[in-house]
Amino acid sequence: MHMEQACGTVLLLNLLCLIKSLKAAFDSINLFVRRKITHVPRGSATKMADNLGVPSSQISRMGQWSQDVMSNSYLDSVPRHLIRKLAGFESDANYYLARAIEEPPAELKRLVFPMADYWYERHTTKNVDQTSGSADGFLLLLKCFQTTFLQDAAAMMDVIPDHPIWKNELFTHPLFLDFRRKVKVHVDAREEPEPELLKKVAPEVQDQLANMNRMISNGFKELARNQQATDALQQTMQQMFNNIVSGRQPLQLSVRLENSSAPTSASASTSTSASASASAYASALVSAPVSTAPVHKMSRGVYTVADLWKEWTLGLDGFWSIQDMDAKYGTAWRKDDRKWYNLRKKEIEAVKKLQNDLGLSPPTAMDTLQRIMSRRNWSLDRLGTELQKGSYDPFSDPKRQKVDDDR
């Protein structure tokens, strides 16, 4: 109760001080006020805005007299056109302030509200005990004032040279004196930014330049997208070439003889087709013997029994399957890959034997060997070596498990 009474007393004193100050200001210019003195500024601003041709809807928003939800809840209470008109600018055109052309140096801005940057950084990084939107907004406003206060002061010192605020040591600092000199040059020269001059002298030219700027910007964006597509295609072609040279991708050779069902061709051509998984398959038609076998190495990127089975029976990334190459070319295609091939063949034979002897499905048989590898921490090389030496029989564990299941 005592707190509420104290707050009420403070508000009353503030109101009395405001009324007293307004009366003194009006008496000094011999202005007689018949209505409530505190309503005079609102009424005068409304009449001024109306005389300047500001729409009544914006005046209602400024005075918070609007009744619709959009104006009261979603639009800013400070309408842009009204503020521009009251400040002496055109509401539907760009504007500038001569004193705002010069930007204060960072060292000078830190002399105005010196702790604003420190606390703003702490609030934005959440390095405070408690954060709030009001605090962030207030600190951001102070940072804005660091610029506008200096720009306004540099211009107003010549308008009100006797104001007591100029006694502050900030306004005798060398940085401010240099900044004030630069601002004064802009103000005295009545310098306008180049876009403003162009818009006043030749608005159509300015519009055309803006359109050209947008077209150039869009052109650069399209060029960047095309460059990315070209880089991706180049990488794909390079990968295809590396696969063929390293032997990971088969090279198909065929011959067409004249006066036969397969006429010969003296020229060489290469055709490629991309699969849905972005893998590639290359073939070449050249003059060569029919019995020529492709040079191919099994994939070194296969680490599981399931992937090995897929490479053996179906093929990987659009390549021929191993069993198809065995059936068509025998051992000719794997002359330089025999050891790798022989170890993998033992593992494929083990999968097939598990299927035939124990009646396991292919996925179950592959999973059985994979579990053995995981349990013993073996690689495919180690499993193939053990099977080749005959030092390990993978069928004992599945047989024992099958007997237990039958029981």
TrEMBL record:
<feature type="domain" description="Transcription activator GCR1-like">
    <location>
        <begin position="297"/>
        <end position="371"/>
    </location>
</feature>
<dbReference type="Pfam" id="PF16787">
    <property type="entry name" value="NDC10_II"/>
</dbReference>
<feature type="domain" description="Ndc10">
    <location>
        <begin position="20"/>
        <end position="176"/>
    </location>
</feature>
<dbReference type="Pfam" id="PF12550">
    <property type="entry name" value="GCR1_C"/>
</dbReference>
<dbReference type="InterPro" id="IPR052146">
    <property type="entry name" value="HOT1"/>
</dbReference>
<dbReference type="InterPro" id="IPR022210">
    <property type="entry name" value="TF_GCR1-like"/>
</dbReference>
<protein>
    <recommendedName>
        <fullName>Transcription activator GCR1-like domain-containing protein</fullName>
    </recommendedName>
</protein>
<feature type="compositionally biased region" description="Basic and acidic residues">
    <location>
        <begin position="396"/>
        <end position="407"/>
    </location>
</feature>
<feature type="region of interest" description="Disordered">
    <location>
        <begin position="388"/>
        <end position="407"/>
    </location>
</feature>
<dbReference type="GO" id="GO:0000978">
    <property type="term" value="F:RNA polymerase II cis-regulatory region sequence-specific DNA binding"/>
</dbReference>
<feature type="signal peptide">
    <location>
        <begin position="1"/>
        <end position="24"/>
    </location>
</feature>
<dbReference type="InterPro" id="IPR038279">
    <property type="entry name" value="Ndc10_dom2_sf"/>
</dbReference>
<dbReference type="GO" id="GO:0000981">
    <property type="term" value="F:DNA-binding transcription factor activity, RNA polymerase II-specific"/>
</dbReference>
<dbReference type="InterPro" id="IPR031872">
    <property type="entry name" value="NDC10_II"/>
</dbReference>
<dbReference type="GO" id="GO:0060963">
    <property type="term" value="P:positive regulation of ribosomal protein gene transcription by RNA polymerase II"/>
</dbReference>
<keyword id="KW-0732">Signal</keyword>
